[in-house]
Structures are given as structure tokens and as C-alpha cells.
Amino acid sequence: MPSRTWKQETAHRASEPLFREIEIFETQFELRRRGKIDEKLFAETRLRRGVYGQRYDNGQRHDGERTQKLSYPCGDLTKGPNTVWDAPGMMRIKIPYGKLSATQLETLAAISEEYSDQILHVTTRQDIQLHFVHIEDTPDLMRRLALVGITTREACGNSVRNVTACSLSGVCQTESFDVTPYANAITYFLLGHDDTQGFGRKFKVAFSGCKDNACGLTNFHDLGCIARTREVDGRIERGFETYVGGGLGAVPYPAQLLSEFLPEAELLPTAQAVARLFARLGEKQNRSRARLKFVVKKLGIAEFSRLVWEERQTLRPDPRWTAFLEDLHGKDEQPLRPGAPLSPGERSAAFNAWRASNVQPQKQAGYVTARVTLSLGDFTPVQARALVDVMRRFTGDTLRTTVDQNLLFRWVSEADLPELFAALEAVGLGAPGAESIADVVACPGTDTCKLGISSSRGLASELRRRLLESPVPEAARDLHVKCSGCFNSCGQHHVADIGFLGVSRNVNGRRVPHFQLVVGGTWTQNGGTYGLAIGAVPSKRAPELMEKLTSRYAAERTPGESFRAFVDRIGKREIRKLVEAHSKLPSYEEDASYYSDWGDPREYSIGDIGVGECAGEVVSLVEMGLAAAERELFEAQLLLESKDAAGVARGARSAMYQAARALTRERSFNLSEDPEEIVSEFRRHFYDTQVFFDPFVGGKFAHFFFRAHEEREQAQTLDSAHQLLEEAQLFLDAAHQCHVREGARLAALTPSSSDDPVEEEVPAE
Prior knowledge:
The chain is α+β, with helices and mostly antiparallel strands. The chain folds into five domains: 6-105 and 118-146, no CATH class; 171-327, Sulfite Reductase Hemoprotein, domain 1 (2-Layer Sandwich), CATH 3.30.413; 349-426, 2-Layer Sandwich (Alpha-Beta Plaits), CATH 3.30.70; 441-595, Sulfite Reductase Hemoprotein, domain 1 (2-Layer Sandwich), CATH 3.30.413.10; 621-749, Up-down Bundle (Four Helix Bundle (Hemerythrin (Met), subunit A)), CATH 1.20.120. It contains 23 helices and 20 strands. A hairpin with a 2-residue loop joins strand 8 and strand 9. Helix 2 packs antiparallel against helix 3 (39-47), helix 4 packs antiparallel against helix 12 (381-395) and helix 20 (645-664) crosses helix 21 (675-687). The longest helix is centred in the C-terminal third of the chain and has 32 residues, at 718-749. The two termini are 45 Å apart. The model is unreliable at 57-86 and 752-765 (pLDDT under 50).
């Protein structure tokens, strides 16, 4: 019997939750086309599915691979239905803790060819991003991914982002224990959870197996968990040193200690309690103050901790909190080939250089990890398929993306290294220098980001080229260099030894791209300390500045002195002198090249900077719930056309329950999805108090809801189902009006928030 096509398989599995979610998104897409969903609400909906816009000023990549703006016919949902949108967007694909199977990577290769510009990009959150994706293709793209167990849900928007973890988890020689099963558990526990739907901004979670190395970079996360063990009565217990309220952005904040040892059984309920506090106490109006770090700062860690433990006690017991602990080895990886040492013999210089920088012994004897160094995190479908072949020959399903935008093969038998390297080298992936000064990290910058000020990818590409072509002083080879296109630190410049952030300056009456130099950050100790900006230099002079800075460090450092210690010793005044020496530039008439950015021959301008939408606007839980109710009602209307009376009635009642729950959850935080409880709590908070009453018809529309619930077991004719549909529509309209009235009442009681500059967020994160 022939195998099913992907369309046949998705149709066969349409009722499964992952596929049902995509169907819901497709319905919302159609409702937006018909003008039945507000653009602000739909924007948050698509962002929560990983779909959003990008910059289209020139569509040109610094490396020449993207040479022209790609143009496709597409309904422009920002301008109304049935118009043309010739600017496709970007798709972010969640890869929890970076783990990829061969089949998943094979699918990613296929969809990148069919739906995007044929570049797969690894982000600093271990995601995969595709650019220039036609928005109307996104439901089918999602279905293709769902067939291999990948989701884009909550890859963006005001949600829990991709959970990251050290890519060496399970094979690291210094870890306390493998954090993989815990990262996996928290990923799927928080995904779509009721208590994570009401955030004012994003929420990031990271796991690290040890404290001193970079690992999961827990210091700048909303929730950071470092593996710890302790001995109690002769028994080893597992837990986590837990931090909250970290973040980079325009003003970085170090995470604060919540618990020195959080027992493993308390990990998920504590995460849930933190999420609930963030949803309740986090800023919703002023986006510049909407991250968890501002809640922690305002309350102080002592008070915030007290509230977390207090919140923890109010939670309804959930079997998922501890169910995963019964099989912590369910996600363990098994080697494909037996471990064996590398045989003696002469090797090429290229192999030796690659092995020295990219290969690291595992704690399991005979096995090593091998990093694939990706230039700016990019690789092609052809390269992806070559990687799939390597996996199936040598390692099995053990590949992981890394937070420094590379790939990591695990469980490589040391004896297989020459063949594995040859396979990588054949497709241009055999470059050495992983985690070295040449392994430069960069956000999208002006290539595709609406907020990019300077070309971070262009600068990073030029830095990488020079560092690979010219000898680097031995002392400087392990420095970390990171570039951000603006102040938001999506390239993580704050935790680099040498960081660059894009700014703009007026020189000689013209706009000139510049980069601020940031020095003194610490990549180790989980991103332990943040650097400071020293001053700005023209973009075209930044590589020269870095060369002078690293040369001086190599020449003047004391034995064993780190770059941060060197900066502290000589003082920032001395580094400022270097910056000033590289800040001058010729007039436009003398050399116009200084007045354009890397990879873009046009004269530099910031006129095409747009509004960042990565996090979306804040859409309340009520609005999201009412939108879900509208979608249920729309689907019921479609069933009416097919004369499915029972289906119409189910859909109409479900829409009413959704709307009632959306309103009531703001007053009953633990409200479940049980219809009896929804009706009871709605009656208590909205009917008995007359809050829901319409000024003209009183509580009539609430009676429609109560009667629909009471008669839910009765058989329906097509006429009675049609009537129920009409009553449900009236109830939803009344729910919308109730929400508007309550919003206006609360707004009148709430003082306006401060006018601090907005700390935006862009796609690289």
C-alpha cells in the first residue's frame, strides 16, 4: 500500500491537538480576511504562532545570497482583505533545548526550499528561523512541521519563548546532572497553559547543568535554573538553584536568587506560580516596563519570593507537576556506533585545526562532541541534508542547536571523526574556530529587522572574514565577540568580551552608521556580568578598532589575566582613547564608502526603520478569550450550512462558555474549563452583581447562556440550533460590551504610567 502524502497524513490526523491548533489559526486567518477580527488581535494571534513581519528596505543579505527582494502575491492583513502584500514575513520555529532528529532536520530542509529564501537560521534561543515566508503558506508549513513533532506555537508574542538549555546536557563532564528531561517537561507544561496567556511581554526560561561555565546563560533570563544536588540521609537529591528577573535589552538586569535549592518536584509548580505573578503584577500599558525584571526590581527579591511561595499554595494540584519524574531517562540518547579512540596516523592540517577547536570529549568514554561552525547561524537545505546523512551514519538523533548559533553533534565515536569531518568539509561546514573570537554572534540587524539601526550581520561577517584570514594573537583567540543592530541586545553584546551595538550619528550633515563599543562582559558563570558602552565609532572603522584592542590586550596582559580583568586594570579611560582615535572619518567627497553600511552600497539612512512587532501589542486575556469564542461561533456557522444541528449547538454553547470564562478568569484566577464551574463563577461575579447587565435589556443575554447550559443534553433540530446560534451571538456581543465598560471603569481609576522610552524587542531573541 503506498504511503500517504503529507496532505493526506495531516487530514488523517486533523483531530490531534497539534493539528487542531493549526486549523484554529487558519480559521482566525480567514476571519481576519473577512474583517471579523481586529488587526491588533490578529497580530498577537499570528505572533503566538511564530508568524510576523520583517524589514523590506532592500531584501539584501550581506553575503550576496539574497540579492533581491522576493515578491509574492499575498493578502495584506494590515490593509484589509483581498489586497496584495508583496512583502513576505518571517517564521520562527521552536526547537526546545535545541534537540533535532534527522527526520525533523530533513523536514526543515524541505520547507526552507519550498516556502522561504532557502536559508535556515539558528537563533540565540536555539530556534530555527525562515525568512521571506508567504503568510498564506504558514498553515501548511505548520502542518508539515507538526507531522514530525515540531510546533511554532508561542515562538513569539507575549508568551513563554523557547526553553533553552546547555547543548552539552547529558554529556558534559562538569554538570551536576542532565537537565534535558526537566527542560522538556517545563516546555510542554507551560506551552498553552492558562497561566501563561496574560503576560504583558515575553517570558524566557533557561537551564544549565553547572554554574561556572556559560551553559544556559541563566543570569539574563526571567527564570533560570542551575542543576544542583545535595545529600540527605545518605541519599542524593536533585534540585535547582533558581533565579528570576534577569534580562538584557536596553538596560540589562542580573537575575536574582529565588531559591538556593528548589527540589525537582517543585520545579513546575514554582514556574507556574512565577508565571501567574508576572501575568497579574506585570505592566500591561507601558511596554518599556513590562518585563518580569521590573516587577522583581519594584517589589524587591524578598517580597517577590514571599509572593511566589504564597501563590504556590493557591495552585490546584496538577499530576503533571511530578509525572515526568517517573521516567527521567525517557529522553536519554543512545549512541548509534560504539565508542572507540581515534586511530593513529597523519591527518590534514584542516582536520587538526578543526579537531582542536570544535571537538570536545564527552564524559562517556570513547565519545566526543563535534561543533559545526555556522557563519552568522546560517546554513542551506543542501547542507542540512548533508547533516542528516551524517546523523544517520554516525550519531543518530542527537543533534542540537546552540545559543551561539552553531550546531552540535553528540555521541560521535572518536574513531569516526575523520569521516565525519570529510562529510562536513564537502559541503562547506568544516570551518574551525567554534567558540573562538572568529565565531561572531549577530542579530538580524538591518537585514530583516524593522528596528535595526546598523548592519550587525554585515559587521559580524567582516569581522569573521578578517579574523579567519589574519593571525590572531594567541591570548585573544578565546574572546567572545557579539554584535547587535540596536540597543536591544538581541546579539547579546552585554555579555561579550567585545560587543558592538548599532547606533546612528550625524557627521558633516549626513547620517553615518556607527557602533558603540561595549567591553567587560562575562560569557562564563552563565553570563555572569554585563559590559558597558565606551563610545561609538563609524561602522567601517569598527574592525580596525577591534584589531587594535585585541592586539593591545595580547601585548599588555599579565599572565592568565582575563579580558575583563585587563579592562578593569587599564581603565575605561584608556579604552575610550582608542575609540576616539578611530572615531574620525573622511568627508563624503573624499570617501563616500564610510557613509554606507556593510553589505549595502546605498547611502545610509534610518528612514526605513519601522515599529518592532516581535512581542506584539498587549492583548488581554479577555480579548484573547473572546476572540476564541468568536472563532468557535464562526465554525458553528459553517456547520449550519452543512445542516449539522448537533454540531451547531455544540459550537454555540462552546462559544458561550469561552466568552464567560474569558470574562470571569480575571476575577477567579483558578477557574477551570469545567462548564458547571464556569457558569457558577460567571453568575457570582457578573450576573448577581449586575456587572454584565446591558443598559437596555438588563440580564436577558445572560439568561441565554444559563438556558443553553441547562438544556445542553437536549436534542436539537436545525431550527433550534439556529436559534441557539443567534442567542450565542447576542451573548458574545454583550460580553464584548461588558469588557469595554469594565475597561473604561478601571482606566478611570488607574493613574497613567510613565513615559519611559519603549524597550522594544526584535526577532533575533
